[in-house]
Amino acid sequence: MTAVLSQRELNRATLARQLLLQRADLPVDEVVEHLVGLQAQTPHSWYVGLWSRIADLDAAQASAMLVDRSLVRVALMRSTIHLVTAADARGLRAVVQPVLDRDLFTNGTHGRPIRGVDAEAMTSAGSALLAERPMTAKELGAQLQSEWPDVPPTTLAYAVRNLLPLVQVPPRGLWGRSGPIAHTTAESWLGPDPAPAQTVAQLVLRFLAAFGPATVADMQRWSGLTRLREVIDPLRPELMTFRGEAGQELFDLPDAPRPDAETPAPPRFLYDFDNLLLSHADRSRVITEDFAVHSQRPHGPVPSVVLIDGVTGGDWTVARDGDSAVLTVRPYRTLNATVAAGLIAEGERLLAFMDPDAEDRRVEVAGPLVPEEEPLRAV
Questions:
Q1: Which of 134, 136, 307, 363 is an S-S bond match for 268, by CB 3.0 to 4.6 Å?
Q2: What is the pLDDT of residue 196?
Q3: In this structure, what DSSP letter does residue 254 have?
């Protein structure tokens, strides 16, 4: 009989894979590789994602890895920018290329104008231009429009970005600095790649190591790929299977960690596009009903979430004014003093990481506190 994993067991297993139960004492590149990258369309917030997962993270060292080209930011899963190792920049890109093709040709803005364009000629021209020097999308589009005057320059640049592996070059994304969103080709930036492309099966196994246990729908949501049932079925002999509380079939690696449901989950501060919150079709292992109610900000930034007992218990912001920095946690429920103290302690460590030069650093937990609270649970 197939064993059943409770929601709380599923939560703890995923947190363990995500290095959020206990920080890892590992090099940055090993953590990034284990996580199969960090979503990183914002230039700097992903540093918080690394800080929450790596013991004593040195932000300057992580930043230097963008300069020495051992880490890069490139469009990958779900056609979004990810921070990955140099090896994964090409290996992963090859396997998820169908996702970027689909994104381009079905795109409501760019799909129609690009129809009928010789894609091979366009990408060849774009590659040659970017090999000369990194360019912004505006610069690249303007250059290409001399050859394809009937296609909007934004569409030409977007097409090259989707059809070729382009990396965002520093200073964009450097710690404490930034710059324009300028791209060059992965080949120009990293040199020729002699390694074979990864397979879809390898991608699925890496997903389970970082996000499992998971359903086929979860795998498809994370990668953007479809028809993964055809990939997972031949892998069944080397995988374990479980059932979730709702009866869904879950796949997992035999030797992957699956901690006890009551394993303590310390407070953790996530960043705005943390993959923990984005990589499952059914996000109820981490997402609470409170999050759905309180996190809606139609005209504001994507909230940065704080995990309380392993699930979405609130969000956080940092306000800076001169030499002061204030981190405010907005809980979704009333907290007791013990939980609030844990949040404050973790928040103080985060502020010291984010604003080490601030003379006045404070952490505040909004709302009243109570002696006891009903435990948070995911949906």
A1: 307
A2: 79
A3: T
C-alpha to C-alpha distance for 193 and 185, rounded to whole angstroms: 12
Using alpha carbons only, what angle is made at residue 181 by residues 299 and 160, rounded to the nearest 5 degrees? 105
Indicate whether this model's pTM tops 0.85: yes
Name beta bridge partners: 240: 252
Cα 283 from Cα 14, distance rounded (Å): 11
Which distant-in-sequence residues (6+ apart) come within 8 Å of 124 by Cβ?
Answer: none
> Using CA atoms, how far apart are residues 214 and 208, in angstroms rounded to an integer?
7
> Of the residues 190, 219, 240, which one is the last residue of a structural domain?
190
Residue ranges, the chain, pLDDT below 50: 373, 376-379
Q: For residue 234, tell me if it sits in a domain.
A: no
Domains held by the chain: number: 2
Measure the CA dihedral 112/118/122/124, to 10°.
Answer: 150
Asked if 175 and 315 sit in the same domain, the reply is: no
pLDDT digits (tens, 9 = 90+) for 247-273: 999 999 999 999 999 999 999 999 999
Instruction: Indicate if 39 and 180 belong to the same structural domain.
Output: yes
pLDDT of residue 369: 60
CA trace torsion 80, 206, 3, 243 (10° rounding): 20
Which pLDDT score, from 0 to 100, does residue 299 have?
A: 61
For 331, phi then psi, to 5°, come to: -70, 150
Residue linked to tokens 């795109």: 107
Domain boundary among the residues 169, 190, 211 is at 190
Range of the domain at 347: 287-370
Residue 46 lies in a domain: yes
| Tokens coding 308 | 């309380």
pLDDT of 379? 41
